Amino acid sequence: MAPLKGASGAETPTGPGMEGDTRGSAGEKGAVFVASVTSFMTPFMGSSVNIALPAIGKTYAMDAVLMGWVTTSYLIATAVFLLPLGRASDLVGRKRIFVSGILVFTGVSLCIPLSWSATALIALRGVQGMGGAMIFGTAMAILASAVAPRRRGRAIGIATGATYAGLTAGPFLGGLLTEGLGWQSIFIVCALAGAAVFVVAARCVRPDTGAPSGGSFDLAGASVYAGALVALMLGLARVRTASGVTLLVAGAAAMGVFLLWEGRQACPLVNTALFRSNRAFTWSNAAAFIHYSATFSTSFLMSLYLQSVRGFGPSGAGVVLVTQPAVMTVLSPLAGRLSDRIEPRILASLGMVITSVGLALLASLGQGTETPWIVSCLGLVGLGFSLFSSPNTNAVMSSVSPGDYGMASGVLATMRITGQSFSMAVVLLVISLFLGDRGTAHVDQEAFMTAMRTGFVFFSLLGIPGVLASLARGEVRKRPG
Q1: CA separation (Å) from 177 to 52, 87, 162, 317, 373?
Q2: Half-sphere exposure (CA, 13 Å, Cβ side) for 359?
Q3: Residues facing residue 4 across a β-bridge
Q4: Dist CA 176 CA 184 (whole Å)
Q5: 113 by DSSP, 3-state: which?
Q6: Contact 351, 288 (CB under 8 A)
Q7: pLDDT of 73 above 50
Q8: pTM of the prediction?
Q9: What CA–CA distance (Å, rounded) separates 332 from 163?
């Protein structure tokens, strides 16, 4: 395997004794463990909290808007802090930021059940999102640093599979915990998992020293970036209103200022030159944004379809919807392993094509479609997602030098969250256009079906530029000879 090139164009050694070649040591196994458990925790908690929202709302007498902020505050905080804290980890040490994030996440998880008001709970969820950003802005960087390049795809596949295992287990275990022990138990379980990760990370994850002397953190750039991202995400959520459009324009302008500012800094928050000079990094992140934009709202639309149109109960709908994450859980480790042998460009592009076909088939669903066909379509989307996600992540982390792992991990995670936000904004816009302000509980089923089909057609077509972006990355690795 030829050496990789980072942002500066310098070659990254990958031979024995170099970073990323611990040859199956305790450090490598510890890194895989902490990355996998933390990859499980967040989607598990997110899907569990969504199931528990009615119970949380009842405890604090919340209306629907406030209940939405229980999830939104976490999402926005995570998005805002991912990139800055990923960069900070490159400067002060990834393990230091990661372990600090585990402490914040675990401590806040213990505090949330004691919240004295809805406002306090929402604020704590925001702090928890910051802790989550400290974890997930560094976990993949720690994994990439600890695992030998020839085994990196397999390790990333395991961590990615853990993510989908969390999505699969969340609705079932979250429902059981909420019904049996109360919604507070979800956060206590996550705190216990966080404590286990802290112990393993403290003992097994290899310390790193951060950047050489002379590196500094771009606080001004981080502030502009945070303001721009908050404005963009709030604008997407309110895109039908004048204030939403204003926020989008302001956010786009602020993001432009941020990019100009970063291009002039000696120690930027994000190395914009990397996007100009590193084709694999740029197009892999673009493909990630497009793929998450196309797929994130699938479970939302299908949940409404199954319950509002087909008459399924929550548990029955959950059984059908578990198909996609279950397929992703099983196949993601295999796809990650294949990406160690086959160029990620090939696997990820094939995955994007399969995903688009699956979304197009979902657009053809009718009011009387048989359940096995629905399950098959969801399974096809899960197959495409599996082939895309692990190889694409491997491509991102393999395209930069070790000194940029934290930044690369933060950028990739930001692409994921902003893509998810864009996906939901598109769906809410389409539903509002066809259903107005009537909601989805008691409406004309034909109107909802039209909205759902429009959404799936749009997302399926979005796969076309996604495939082109995936193919445009070129080869991440050079073949011998």
Answers
A1: 9, 37, 20, 19, 31
A2: 30
A3: 12
A4: 12
A5: helix
A6: no
A7: yes
A8: 0.71
A9: 10
Is residue 369 located within the same domain as residue 321?
yes
Q: What are the pLDDT digits (tens) for 175-212?
A: 778 778 888 888 998 888 888 878 877 776 666 655 54
Q: Which of 49, 54, 56, 86 is nearest to 71 (CA)?
A: 49
Structure tokens at 257: 């200022």
Cβ atoms of 244 and 73 within 8 Å: the answer is no
12 phi and psi, to 5 degrees?
Answer: -100, 115
Q: Are the C-beta atoms of residues 281 and 400 closer than 8 Å to each other?
A: yes
Q: Take residue 189 and report the two structure tokens written for it.
A: 């379980």
Identify whether 79 is part of a domain. yes
Tokens describing residue 362 = 């979902």
On whether the CB atoms of residues 51 and 372 are closer than 8 A, the answer is no
d(C-alpha 156, C-alpha 151), whole Å: 9
Tell me the residue type at 130.
M
Q: Do residues 443 and 435 make contact, with C-beta atoms less than 8 angstroms apart?
A: yes
Q: Encode pLDDT of 226-263 as tens digits.
A: 888 888 877 876 777 788 889 889 988 998 888 888 77
CB-based burial of residue 319 (10 Å sphere; 0-12 exposed, 13-18 middle, 19+ buried)? middle
Q: How far apart (Å, rounded) are the C-alpha atoms in residues 408 and 86? A: 8
**The domain that contains 423 carries what CATH number?**
1.20.1250.20
- Residue 342's φ and ψ, nearest 5 degrees, are -115, 140
User: Alpha-carbon distance 367 to 362, whole Å?
Assistant: 12
Print the domain residue range for 59.
21-207
Q: How many domains does the chain have?
A: 3
Q: Are residues 86 and 232 in the same domain?
A: no
**Cα–Cα distance measured from residue 403 to residue 140, given in angstroms and rounded to the nearest whole number:** 13
Q: Please report how the helices 279-295 and 445-472 are oriented relative to each other, as an axis angle in degrees rounded to 10.
A: 170
In degrees, to the nearest 5, what angle opens at C-alpha 440 toward C-alphas 436 and 445? Answer: 95
| 326 shares its domain with 338 | yes
CA angle 329, 335, 339 (to 5 degrees): 150
